[in-house]
Amino acid sequence: MQRDQLADFLRRRREAMRPAEVGIADGPRRRTSGLRREEVAMLAGMSVDYVVRLEQGRSSQPSVQLLGALARALRLSDDERDHVFHLAGHRPPPADGVARLARAGLIRMLDLLSDTPALVLSDLGEVLAQNRAALLLMGNHTGFSGDRRYAVYRWFTEPAARAFCPPEEREYHARRLVADLRAVVGRRSGDTAAAGLVDRLHATSADFRRLWAEHEVAVRRADRKTFLHPRVGRLVMDCETLVTPDQGQQLLVLTAADAEARERLELLRVIGVEEFPTGATGPTTR
């Protein structure tokens, strides 16, 4: 780990960031050039003290997960992200694979869609990044580990993941999740991560075994989904999925399907993220 080099790079990137790039108002009383340390900490989901120690070269070696969060918070390019991994003494994430970091270009698109809920997902349904509007709608989906990273796994193993979906839509949603997973496994022929996920779902969920046996295949590109939000109630959203050329990552954009949903989304922006119940993970994506 090259602590001094890492500290210098992170400090310079923070100072070079414009607050507006990450949706923070740049008021007339602002005297700090770039982002404040507490703003980086908030965006990355870590303590301010740790950000300070990183920038002063006094930190312990940051984990791969923490580096990924910093890369998202500072909007690092792919090359800059790999550089940070090297300085921290880690091997950069592979160009291909299941648990990748969101591409820098897709993160910038999230910033542009500031008032529209949007997420970046891996092809197996792990949320790699989400903008503030998505955070307000469904809570934070980027902090899971193990198989819980995947929406399909949470759906079939955790009742709380299904609570945000109306009962009358749950069978349809479950079928769509399984059909999409079947398409991904077909593309990833021989991939142990994808096959292992299917095996563990087989061992855990009778509902998954039932639907998997039907061998339905359907890549999810456009959909309509109802969210039961704990604060503002029912929102009907249109979901559009844009896929990268290698089909490894997806940009999921959610727009209000009717006037009522638009009003409730606006109410969410007024309420703010602090009103989302502590510990809630929001509705399952995809």
Largest sheet: 5 strands, antiparallel
Widest sheet, order of strands: 2-1-5-4-3
Give the helix level as a range of percent.
40-55%
| Number of strand segments | 5
CATH structural class of the largest domain: Alpha Beta
How many domain modules? Answer: 2
- CATH architecture annotation name of the largest domain: 2-Layer Sandwich
Assembly state of the chains shown: single chain
Radius of gyration: 20 Å
Please specify the SSE layout and strand pairing.
Blueprint: H1 3-16, H2 37-44, H3 48-55, H4 64-73, H5 78-87, H6 104-112, E1 118-122, E2 127-130, H7 132-138, H8 151-157, H9 159-162, H10 170-187, H11 192-204, H12 206-212, E3 222-229, E4 233-243, E5 249-256, H13 259-271
Structural descriptors:
286 residues; 434 Repressor (Amino-terminal Domain); Beta-Lactamase; 13 helices
Brief overview:
With 286 residues, this protein is an alpha+beta fold. 45% of the residues lie in helices and 13% in strands. It folds into 2 domains: 3-87, 434 Repressor (Amino-terminal Domain) (Orthogonal Bundle); 114-275, Beta-Lactamase (2-Layer Sandwich).
Write a structural description:
With 286 residues, the protein is of the alpha+beta class. It has 2 domains: 85 residues, 434 Repressor (Amino-terminal Domain), CATH 1.10.260; 162 residues, 2-Layer Sandwich (Beta-Lactamase). Helix content is 45%, strand content 13%. A 5-stranded antiparallel beta sheet has the order 2-1-5-4-3, with helices on both faces. A hairpin with a 3-residue loop joins strand 3 and strand 4. Helix 2 crosses helix 4. The two termini are 37 Å apart. About 2% of the residues have low confidence.
